[in-house]
Write a structure and sequence with these properties.
Elements: H1 21-28, E1 35-38, H2 45-53, E2 59-63, H3 67-76, E3 82-85, H4 92-98, E4 104-110, H5 115-119, H6 145-151, H7 154-165, H8 170-181, H9 189-197, H10 208-221, H11 223-238, E5 239-249, H12 252-262, E6 268-270, H13 280-285, E7 293-299
Parallel strand pairs: 1-2, 1-4, 2-3, 4-5
Antiparallel strand pairs: 5-7, 6-7
Helix pairs in contact: 7-8, 7-10, 9-10, 11-12
């Protein structure tokens, strides 16, 4: 049995193309009866392939912070082996409890934005699509990027853009934001893109606003803290001994955390000594895969949980 999208119930099917699918499945090394978590469900691209690899006794648990993702996923994925929960990946212990499971065999985390989110003009993730400058994965929690831009000090904005966006003109951009917001609040992605275009020229082949929007998105979603918590606390508590984790990162800040954590030999056995990247063929077919880095590790068999699922 495979995933069962229901076109008659879903007027807006996912346009997202998952990256490194074959490599992810190899890293997860799934048995037919495995309990697998797709902790960033997105458009369900990886989930479809995982379900195909599972037998009738397998179980896929999908999580996502985005309520729209879960709504669409529930409509499209009617396979009884697939259970979806509107939760962040750092809430994995609670999700497993909700599913009646103590520990899982494998966890996949894709830390990139989905194409669906980039194309959603109501969220502001995409430079081309624009929209309100929100950038939250869960619009029901926390402050929007527009609110952050309005209240943060120049020093705070400089640090966010420099540390999370690795933008060399962070101080100049922060100063221009503060000068502009006093007379004209920056409320849309288009507002921000135009402002940054006056300050910084494109470099490394990308629009200068890309790094700033990335930085704001990381800040409002507390992404780096969440990744560290996931790897340090959540996964060791939720995986069975020997269970596999596969993490796909799309920029150096997240990949560095994954790399350093998986090298803790008291907790992890590295499955991938070096990151796996997309083949030239995949990059041609899906340019988004160009910056993807996949790392995988298995939880040490010596790690005890006081029981099993």
């Amino acid at each position: 049995m495979t995933a069962s999208p229901s076109p008659e119930r879903d007027s807006a099917p996912s346009i997202h193309v998952p990256v490194l699918v074959r490599e992810v499945l190899q890293c997860l090394n799934l048995r037919p009866d495995a309990i697998v978590v797709d902790a960033t469900f997105g458009g369900g691209g990886h989930a479809s392939h995982i379900l195909q690899a599972l037998g009738p006794d397998g179980l896929l648990i999908g999580l996502d912070r985005d309520p729209l993702v879960i709504q669409k996923g529930t409509e499209r994925f009617t396979d009884p082996r697939c259970r979806l929960f509107h939760r962040s990946y750092i809430e994995l212990p609670a999700a497993l409890n909700d599913a009646g499971v103590k520990l899982c065999d494998a966890v996949l985390v894709d830390l990139g934005l989905s194409s669906d989110q980039l194309a959603d003009a109501s969220r502001g993730f995409g430079i081309q699509t624009g929209g309100p400058l929100d950038l939250r994965f869960n619009p029901q929690q926390g402050e929007s990027a527009a609110d952050l831009l309005q209240r943060a000090t120049e020093a705070e904005l400089t640090q966010i853009v420099r540390d999370f966006g690795e933008e060399p003109k962070a101080a100049l951009i922060a100063r221009r934001i503060v000068e502009t917001r006093s007379s004209s609040p920056i409320t849309s992605t288009g507002d921000l893109v135009r402002l940054i275009g006056q300050v910084s020229l494109a470099s490394r082949g990308i629009h200068p606003a890309t790094l700033v929007i990335q930085a704001l998105r990381i800040a409002v979603n507390h992404e780096l803290d969440a990744v560290q918590t996931l790897l340090t606390d959540v996964l060791p508590a939720c995986l069975k001994p020997g269970g596999r984790a596969a993490i796909i990162a799309f920029h150096s800040l997240e990949d560095r955390i994954v790399k350093q954590t998986f090298r803790n030999r008291d907790v992890w056995d590295e499955v991938t000594k070096k990151p796996i990247t997309a083949s030239p063929k995949e990059v041609r077919l899906n340019p988004r895969s160009r910056s993807a880095k996949l790392r995988s590790a298995a939880l040490k068999s010596s790690i005890g949980h006081g029981g099993s699922s």
